[in-house]
Design a protein that fits this description.
heterodimer, A: 418 residues, alpha/beta, Rossmann fold, de novo design (two linked rop proteins), 3 domains, 16 helices, 8 strands, B: 818 residues, Ubiquitin-like (UB roll), Alpha-Beta Plaits, 5 domains, seven-stranded mixed beta sheet, six-stranded mixed beta sheet, 27% helix, globular
Chain lengths: 418, 818
């Protein structure tokens, strides 16, 4: 497949507006502004675009929930708080092709009737922030942002809000709290952001990759977009492959490409001629899969059927030298560190599972520890305030389901045998 | 309405009711930690998760509203095991040091674990430990982070109810701590509500620490003796010693909240400085005597000569004050009886009584707060009536309501106010007149900082308006003008068909009750008019100065320290031939007395207080009076020869004379008290009813010096009042409250400080024509320019020494201390 989202990234100075314009940039904006906002929403609905942040909710449908009343201020928030371990897709777009995102955002604002948009960018993306700031400045200079954009009477401003290092701020309501200057932690839903989001006003929150698709849908039409990949989750998808492969990197492929093709054809197979032990399909929250699952198409529905998820599309590959207990421990260390501490099961439960795993890994495991881990997973799952706790449990359950023996061995042998 | 099935039981509730509330209505108990009805919804502790038919995940019942046709299970195995697992999580890192924890015995975590928790924990890791030694965060608050279960009630009550926002969460995940900014020493209201709401022993009271186990305490519900908000609280005593005050979520208008005074101000009761024996003046010196000697001395000497008078403090119970006025009126045959009441003259106080309509029945503050416009004037309410401040703050969250605060000083509640007005003290009348004029004519005059037209608009557009009238107005010598303006405004609004409630804000617990008991030179019990007007406090002192008063009975009032012009008060008192002072401490006034008799504190006697709403509440005896002191009622009865054996018997007599109290059953008074009804004295032709405002103004003698307050030499107008941590001169004897604020200070606006080149916390010289002193400066942003404030609570610099008699509001200058 011809690259779509990544088509510009190898052009020199791809982040500059002149280069972007040379490659037909901001044409989608011009044509979108000639349409009715509802028409743009319908177009995105027809394209079948599903959110690339992880949940895979229909983007057009999300937009259509925003009340049409023009007297109510509305907001668009771009979720650029890319913090899921194994994920680095948004970073590429932000650093290499920021105008693609900005154009998508302006069109989205026009569609939902928002005049103000925020980009909530991960604090560690210092370089990305600079690039975005520069790009936004250029967009203002060229008249794509600000008052009366391209003579259409439509005004739009984009602000950048840098995060401060909390993974939880990638959860949409925590992100809103953070923009409002509050402690970043999730809100009670309902009300959903579409009704009361940022500053209690209707708000759309979309991922960087999702918003980057918009200009292409407008340019080439929803039919073209939905013809790529499977019918129920169409479009191009960025797969970031990391871990024990020969060619780790960012690959843009149609949705539904099999894991085998991505890992072996594109990422060059397992390094040093080793065997594949396991792979995580979509960031560490997604339960891991094993070799027999390699032919699963990488799309929302096929992976869900396998009990895991596409998530962010960040594939982490592990060869036979990986100790799954250690992987689980590291994963839980991450979630333990990132739990906001608000709700009991996540705060106490994840800390507890980490401590048990740590013990196992150190060779101090006890009889019954595996059962304890399973019980703790059950006590956390579905009872936490937000999906962070669920994500942690899913990751651990994935490891326990596929490699239970390895955990038991750790107890028996007082340590790792890999 | 929505009909839901809870554990098979059908119940119909309002739409939007939380599942938790619906279940509780249906009689099913659901344990909660983070949920509290008055606080914002958090949904974090997950104790209340329940199963909803058709939903895979368990849902938190404290944030999920019912839906019609919903089927809820709160007691099936899934829910029970989930609940147990939450407790298991909470206990995992909980230190389980219950044997040394002050909360043991009344700990919610302990209770829930006993009820539905696991008996054994599979947790075998080392527990999280933040510190070994507990952190002392204030002179009254100590924190143990290890025990915290992170329900964040403390954070929310501090933010949403108290309005201080002194607490927050630090860190995240398992390292989260709910504490002050960076765990530093608190600079807050020290109200201890964080301690009260804490379900475990994480927040603790420092004075109560390790004093008792909860089950050893004798706990008695009573009412707070400081301001007139009238909070209910529970005193815990052990071995005849009071060790703590706490409040209950079920009782009183305060419902679990208190201020620093109420919660920690019980230590004066056991102060070493308490009077424990009667004192008689012999050869110019006060020496200890026996009760018999003191009483017979009083009986022999008091009332001899022509003129007798009595001055009482509004800190006494209705029963004591009723008997006191009986003593003065029936035994000594005079109407010369008054309250201290910030020493307003009788015309001011009587007109205030009329405009506040104290003769009518009480109005619940919750009804008063239902109005769309709430207007507060003449009270630094956050300091004077802290719990009324909390209640108003919670109401003002409603965006449909407008809160207007008018006061020279900026204080805490201003951050919740929609409109703040600033004015020079003494010009309260102009503020009210401005509003009236705006409504009537669309124009107004006056020297007010703030948008009066906006206030006028709000008044115009509202259907229900509540005005809170503070005690500052009583301090003004032109108070009658203010009252006249209020009457005019009230009349105008009434004519426009609006519902007006005027509520008083008093600084002494039983000010309203005292007036109803007839502690006034113009009113008998039940606010019936006297036949022959008596002298008010100022007139008594004037007469004394001329040598015309022969005997004076002072019940619990410190005139020398409080009367505006200390020197004059002292001189006047020295001219009285025979003075009896009945008090708990040897006050400056008591030192001048011929006989000093030791009375009892609020925890040592029975009776009733009537708060500012008109709510009669029971004061209950917890311990016997210290040393050889006695119940005030017994003392008054033995001097007057009355046969009352208990407060209840007096109350029965009160019911006969004060009609509003007729239906109140003394024994049945519970945690909510009872609102008084009308005294039947409303229509006896009082001067306000049915007459124009101008008539009141002209009917009363005026001494209006404050209309030209801008003197060059002394540019500041000095106002005074209670500090948040203190009340009158009583609290300076409390060794805990004195730790919170030990020294008086002078407070001025930031504008003035800049002009004078002064900075916060530096020492300045405060000088009036009468007195000068060096004080610490406090600078407040947003206060009225040209106004200085000093708390009236300290003997060390007694604020009344700055005053000159007849001046109303003192004038001072403030200079850099060199």
């Amino acid at each position: 497949m011809e690259p779509i989202l990544l088509k510009n990234i190898n052009t020199p100075d791809s982040h500059k507006v002149d280069v972007y314009l040379k490659n037909n940039g901001y044409q989608a904006l011009a044509s979108a502004l000639k349409m009715q906002p509802d028409g743009v929403i319908q177009m995105v609905k027809d394209s079948g675009l599903r959110g690339r942040g992880g949940a895979g909710f229909s983007t057009g449908l999300k937009w259509s929930f925003i009340p049409k009343d023009p007297t109510i201020p509305k907001y668009l928030c771009c979720n650029a708080d890319e913090g899921e371990p194994g994920t680095f897709k948004d970073r590429v777009i932000i650093e290499k092709d920021p105008h693609q995102l900005i154009e998508g955002m302006i069109i989205t604002c026009y569609a939902i009737g928002a005049k103000t948009a925020y980009i909530y960018i991960r604090g560690e993306f210092a370089f990305g922030t600079k690039r975005l700031e520069q790009a936004i400045k250029e967009a203002y200079e060229k008249g794509y942002l600000g008052k009366n954009i391209l003579g259409s009477n439509f005004d739009c401003d984009i602000h950048i809000h840098r995060g401060f290092g909390a993974y939880i701020c990638g959860e949409e309501t925590a992100l809103l709290e953070s923009i409002e200057g509050l402690r970043g932690r999730p809100r009670i839903k309902p009300p959903f952001p579409a009704i009361a989001g940022l500053y209690a006003k209707p708000t759309v929150i979309n991922n960087v990759e999702t918003l980057s698709c918009i200009s292409h849908i407008v340019n080439k039409g929803p039919k073209w977009f939905s013809s790529i990949g499977p019918e129920k989750s169409p479009g191009p998808k960025l797969f970031g492959v990391s871990g024990h492969v020969n060619k780790p990197g960012m690959y843009e492929l149609p949705m539904g490409t099999t894991a085998r093709e991505i890992i072996y054809n594109h990422a060059g197979g397992i390094r040093n001629g080793k065997k594949l032990k396991a792979f995580i399909p979509g960031g560490v929250s997604a339960p891991m899969l094993v070799e027999k699952d390699l032919d699963t198409p990488m799309d929302f529905d096929s992976l869900a059927a396998k009990g895991t998820m596409l998530g962010s599309g960040g594939i982490i590959v592990m060869d036979e030298t990986a100790c799954i207990v250690k992987v689980a421990m590291r994963t839980m260390a991450f979630f333990r560190h990132e739990s906001c501490g608000k709700c009991t099961p996540c705060r106490e439960g994840i800390d507890w599972t980490y401590k048990v795993l740590h013990r196992l890994e150190k060779g101090e495991g006890k009889e019954g520890d595996v059962e304890l881990l399973e019980k703790l997973c059950g006590n956390i799952f579905g009872r936490t305030f937000c999906p962070l706790g669920d994500g942690a449990v899913m990751a651990l359950r994935g490891a326990l389901k596929n490699f239970r023996d390895e955990f038991v061995e750790h107890v028996k042998n007082k340590g790792c045998i890999v | 309405m929505a009909t839901v099935k809870i554990n098979g039981k059908e119940i119909t509730v309002e739409d939007g009711t939380l599942i938790l509330d619906a279940a509780r209505q249906a009689g099913f108990e659901i344990p909660t930690f983070c949920y509290q009805a008055r606080l914002s919804r958090l949904g974090s502790c997950r104790m209340c998760i329940i199963e909803i038919g058709g939903q895979k995940k368990l849902q938190p019942s404290c944030v999920t509203p019912v839906m019609h046709g919903m089927e809820v299970f709160t007691e099936n195995e899934t829910v029970k095991s989930a609940r147990a697992s939450m407790l298991e999580f909470l206990l995992a890192n909980h230190p389980l040091d219950c044997p040394t924890c002050d909360k043991g015995g009344e700990c919610e975590l302990q209770d829930f674990v006993f009820k539905s928790g696991p008996r054994r924990s599979p947790f075998s890791e080392s527990k999280r430990r933040f510190h070994d030694k507990d952190k002392i965060l204030s002179p009254v608050i100590i924190k143990n982070h290890n025990r915290c279960i992170h329900c964040e009630r403390c954070v929310r009550i501090c933010d949403e109810v108290v309005g201080r926002t002194a607490l927050g969460s630090i860190g995240r995940g398992a390292k989260i701590m709910e504490t002050s900014f960076m765990d530093s020493t608190l600079d807050c209201d020290h109200c201890g509500n964080c301690i009260e709401v804490c379900p475990v022993g994480s927040w603790m009271s420092l004075p109560y620490r390790y004093k008792a186990r909860t089950w050893d305490l004798k706990e008695i519900d009573t009412v707070c003796p400081y301001c007139a908000t009238g909070c209910q609280f529970t005193i815990g005593a052990r071995n005849n010693e009071i060790v703590r005050v706490k409040s209950k979520i079920t009782t009183g208008i305060n419902k679990e909240t208190l201020c620093a005074r109420g919660r920690f101000g019980y230590n004066f009761i056991q102060s070493e400085k308490r009077l424990k024996k009667p004192l008689l003046k012999k050869n110019g010196k006060l020496v200890e005597s026996s009760w018999d000697e003191a009483i017979s001395f009083i009986k022999q000497r008091f009332g001899a000569g022509k003129k007798t008078a009595g001055i009482a403090s509004a800190r006494h119970t209705n029963e004591e004050l009723f008997v006191f006025q009986k003593l003065i009126r029936d035994v000594f045959k005079t109407n010369n009886i008054d309250l201290d009441s910030r020493f307003a003259n009788k015309w001011v106080t009587s007109s205030a009584i009329e405009v506040l309509n104290l003769a009518a029945g009480g109005i619940s503050i919750f009804d008063a707060l239902k109005a769309e416009v709430i207007f507060v004037i003449g009270s630094a309410i956050s300091n004077e009536n802290p719990i009324t401040d909390y209640l108003i703050r919670q109401t003002a969250v409603d965006r449909r309501k407008t809160l207007i605060l008018a006061h020279p000083r900026r204080f805490k509640l201003n951050s919740s106010a929609n409109i703040s007005l600033r004015y020079k003290p003494g010009t309260e009348g102009e503020v009210i007149k401005g509003i009236t004029d705006f409504i009537e004519k669309g124009v107004f005059h006056g020297n007010v900082v703030g948008d009066i037209s906006q206030v006028g608009e709000k008044f115009k557009n509202a259907k229900n308006i509540t005005m809170f009238l503070g005690a500052d107005i009583l301090r003004l010598d032109n108070g009658t003008n203010v009252v006249a303006e209020i009457v005019a405004l009230k009349g105008l609004l009434k004519k426009a068909g609006k519902n007006i409630i005027i509520q008083p804000l008093f600084d002494r617990c039983n000010q309203r009750g005292a007036r109803a008991m007839g502690i006034h030179p113009l009113f008998l019990p039940g606010l019936k008019k006297v036949k022959e007007n008596g002298m008010d406090c100022g007139e008594i002192l004037d007469a004394a100065k001329k040598g015309e008063i022969d005997s004076l009975y002072i019940l619990g009032e410190d005139i020398v320290s409080m009367y505006p012009d200390a020197k004059f008060a002292k001189d006047a008192l020295s001219n009285i031939k025979f003075k009896v002072v009945q008090d708990t401490f040897l006050t400056e006034t008591a030192k001048t007395a011929d006989v000093v008799i030791p009375g009892a504190s609020y925890a040592e006697k029975d009776g009733t207080f009537t708060n500012q709403e008109g709510r009669v509440q029971r004061l209950r005896k917890v311990i016997s009076p210290v040393g050889n002191s006695k119940d005030d009622l017994d003392i008054l009865c033995s001097i007057g020869g009355f046969a009352y054996k208990s407060a209840k018997e007096v109350f029965d007599d009160i019911k006969k004379e004060v009609l509003g109290y007729k239906d109140i059953n003394f024994d049945a008074l519970d945690g909510n008290g009872a609102l008084v009804k009308g005294h039947g004295a409303e229509n006896q032709g009082s001067r306000v009813k049915g007459q124009g405002a101008s008539e009141i103004a002209s009917a009363s003698p005026r001494n209006d010096t404050s209309s030209n307050p801008y003197l060059d030499e002394y540019p500041f107008l000095l106002i005074t009042g209670n500090h948040l941590f203190h009340s009158g001169r009583l609290s300076q004897n409390d060794d805990v409250l004195i730790k919170l604020l030990a020294e008086p200070f002078v407070e001025i606006s930031e504008e003035d400080a800049k002009e004078l080149g002064l900075t916060d916390k530096e020492n300045v010289k405060v000088k009036s024509s009468e007195y000068e002193a060096v004080l610490k400066l406090r600078v407040v942003k947003g206060s009225q320019k040209g106004v200085a404030f000093m708390p009236e609570n300290f003997d060390s610099v007694s604020v009344n020494q700055f005053y000159k008699k007849g001046q109303g509001i003192a004038r001072v200058k403030i200079e850099k201390q060199v």
